[in-house]
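Chapter summary example: a protein plus pyridoxal-5'-phosphate.
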Amino acid sequence: MGSEFHLRAVVTGETYAPDRVRYRADDGGLLEVALDQSSLDAGEMRRVLQDRLAHRGGVTASGVWRYREFLPPIPDDCVVSRREGNTPTYESDRLAAFTGVDGVRVKHEGCNPTGSFKDRGMTCGVSAAKWLGQTSVACASTGNTSASMASYAAVAGMKAFVFIPAGGVAAGKLAQAVLHGASVVQIEGNFDDAMRLVQEVCAEFGVYLLNSINPFRIEGQKAIGMEIAQDCCWQMPDWIVLPGGNLGNTSAIYKGLRELKAVGVIDRLPRMAVIQAAGAAPLHAGYIDGFAGEPRTVHGPDTIASAIRIGAPASWVKCVDAVRSTEGLVESVTDDEIIAAKRAVDTAGIGAEAASCASVAGLRRLASAGVVKRGDSVVCVLTGHILKDAEAAVGNYGIGESLADGAGVSFDPIVCQPTLESVRDGIARELGGG
Ligand SMILES: Cc1ncc(COP(=O)(O)O)c(C=O)c1O
C-alpha cells in the first residue's frame, strides 16, 4: 500500500514513504499526505457521497470515512472509528441578528463523539497508528485533543499519554482523558512547553505522536470542509470562519476544499477567516505584517478561551497558505467579545465552548467593519461542545452576577424553601408579579 500515496514536504516538495513513522521532512518542515486523485470524476463522486449519507453501518457511515477516496487508503480492518462527523449545520435568526449577517450558519463540531472537531483528525491518526503497528500514542493538548485521543486509543487498545499544561485544561476535558484510561503528564508550563516536550519524548520512547503536525490527523480533519461543502449541496459559502490556535484545523479544512475543487466537486473556494483570541494571536500579528519573516510567537499566551491559548502554532506555514490561497484574513477578538458571542450562541439554544465562539465573535467584528457584508453567506465552525469548559462560563458569568447585555441569561438562582408557597413566591417574583 505504501506505493499508493506518499508524504510530501509542504515547502520543498520532497517526498517520503508513508509506511514508516515520520512527522516532519528532513529539514524539519511540515509534511502532508499526497494522494493521486486525478482519476476521480466529479459527478460520480457527488453521487457516491450523497448515497453514503444513508449508510448506517460500516466504515462509510462515518462523516470522515465517507470521503475515503480523498483519504489515505488505510485498510478497513485498521480503521478506528466512532462514527464521527455528520455534525449538524444550524441557521439561527438570533445569531444573524448578533453577527449582522443574515446568511450565517454554524457547523457544530461539538456534536462529535467526544464533543469536539478533534475526533475527525483522531480517527485518521489512530487508524494510521494501527496500520503502522503502533501500540502507544501521545499528544500535547489544551484539552480537546487529549479527550479525543484517549477515547480513540481506548477503542484501539493502545496506551495513551496526554501532555497538558498545569492548570490550563478545563476539568471536563481532563476528566474525559482520565476516564478513557490515558496517563496524564502534567507540565508545569504552558501548551507550547508541552508541545515541545511531547515531541522529544515520542522520539526517544517510540511513542506515536498524534498532534496535528502528524499529517494523518490533518487528513481526517479535512472532512469538516468536505462536509460543509456537502451540507451546502456543493455550493460553497462566501466565507468559512473558524477559531485558530495551533492552526491545524484551518490547514485541514483548506486542504480538503482544495482537493474537492481540484476534482471539480466544488467550483470555488470560500474565503477563510481565522479568528484568534487577542491574548494569543501570533498569526494575527503576522497577518498584519503581511506574513513577512519567521512565524511569530506570543510568550505567555493568555485568554479565557483555554483551547486556543497557544503562542507558537505548529501549522503556521500551512495556515498561511490557506489564508493567502483563499483571499482570506486573520482577525483577533478580545475575551469580552468571546464571552458576548458565547452568550449569543448559548441563548440561541445552540451552545458551544468559549474557544468555539471566537468564530462568531470574529464574524460580528468583521461584519461591523464592513468586511463581511450582511448578505454574504457564511459558515462559522463551532469547534467544541457547551459542556466542555463549564469553568469559563460559570467563572465569567458569575453566579449571582446580573447581566445587563440583553442576552436574556440569568445565573441568579431562584432560591426557595422546599414548600409550594416559597416556590410560588419565587416564580411570581421572576414573572414580575410578586
Ligand atoms: C474547541 C477548540 N477550538 C479551536 C481550537 C483550535 O484549533 P487549531 O489548534 O487546529 O487551530 C482548538 C484546539 O485545541 C479547540 O479545542
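Key point: Confidence is low (pLDDT under 50) at residues 398-408.
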